[in-house]
Amino acid sequence: MPDPLVSLCVPTRNRGEALRKSLPKILAQRYEPLEILLSDNGSTDGTEALCREAAGRDPRVRYFRHPKNIGLYGNHNFLIDQARGEFLCFFHDHDERDDDLVRTYVSFLQKHPRVGVVCSDWRLIDEEGRGIGDRCFPAAEVTPGLSYIDQTLRSGATAVGTPGACVRRSALGETRFNEAGAIGFGDFPVWFRVAEEHDVGHIPKVLWHWRQEPLSQSAQALKTMAQHYEENLFRYCDEHLARRPENAPRVALWRREIRRYLFWAWAYQLGLRLGKRDPLSCQENQPALPEILDRMRGYRTGALQHLAFPVIQGGARLKAAPLFAWATGNAKLFHKLLRSC
To answer: Residue 183: which CATH number?
Structure first.
């Protein structure tokens, strides 16, 4: 029986130089049969010439050019619709991957036919390719789908990263990215929809590198990310409940977990600010301390958050910098708190 066709979906826009560096590694994946789909979202730099050259040299490459920007998730959805493979991988144009990534994923999915999507651990890198930190998850090799959703909303972190995941087309079905929704965390509902009917796979090995954008850790970014997290995940809860009203108790728990995560995320940001660990805290566009405290007050959902809030509020008023510096300097403690409290 021949190996299944895999579609490598590469959305790109105005990152010709980054694509020039990453494309040879994409073409060098040690797996066949492959098709490589390059979807140029109205680029105005040298992306078009680069992609046409690649398509002329390699028959596996299919190039699509949009005359105008159809949006990030519009471009992702276009690629899904154009892909012919049994398995699909999104390869973002500025990330890096192990040459055996696709082969490893296909072998895993063939071994575990109930798994709808699989992803490995990954490494965060900066613009120069230097390591920022690894994202290694305490996930089982195979996790039942609804348990994956539970765990993700409990911790606020997913073990499935879109630029490094491989999804089974039959599991994806008609599910698509919400083009009208907020960009941040817009992939969570996609993997959750897959997980409603399928297991989720995990490979405990760093097989790809996720390049981070500048200022991604700023307070303003957190403010935007928090808004996107709330919008996308509460919408998912609404839609899931409409599809599966029998899951009402579980959805109610998910809503509490969303608010709980946002409470602690803002608490962490407050700690960065007061502990002098936030290099952008003096910029004018950063949220003021009263705004952060107001957001935390609104997100309280459990006894621990109600007990912790006045303590944190009091520490903020006293400007207890050493305490906040210690707390935010122990990121592992923070993540443990999210998983267990």
So the answer is: 3.90.550.10
Are 204 and 262 members of one domain? no
Asked if the structure places residue 1 within a domain, the reply is no
CA distance 187 to 226: 15
CA distance 190 to 7: 18
Is residue 122 within 8 Å of 48, Cβ to Cβ?
no
Half-sphere exposure of 292 (CA within 13 A, CB side): 24
- For the segment 98-127, what is each residue's pLDDT rounded down to a tens digit? 999 999 999 999 999 999 999 999 999 988
Domain span holding position 289: 219-340
- Cα 202 from Cα 209, distance rounded (Å): 16
CB under 8 A, 24+ apart: contacts of 321-327: 321/274, 321/275, 321/276, 322/275, 323/275, 324/270, 324/271, 324/272, 324/273, 324/274, 324/275, 325/271, 325/275, 325/276, 325/277, 326/275, 327/271, 327/275
Q: Indicate whether 130 and 229 sit together in one domain.
A: no
Lookup: tokens for 279: 């290099």
Q: What angle do CA 135, 73, 247 make, to 5 degrees?
A: 70
Q: Are residues 223 and 117 in the same domain?
A: no
- Answer yes or no: is 137 within a domain: yes
Q: Are residues 185 and 223 in the same domain?
A: no
- Looking up tokens 């952060």 gives 292
> Do 177 and 44 have their domain in common?
yes
pLDDT-derived band at 290 (thresholds 50, 70, 90) equals confident
Cα–Cα distance for residue pair 319/169, rounded to 1 Å: 53
Residue range 58-73, pLDDT digits in tens: 999 999 999 999 999 9
Instruction: State the Cα–Cα distance between residues 77 and 59, nearest whole angstrom.
Output: 23
For residue 54, being part of any structural domain is answered with yes
Is 251 in the same domain as 105? no
Tell me which of 281 and 336 has the higher pLDDT.
Answer: 336
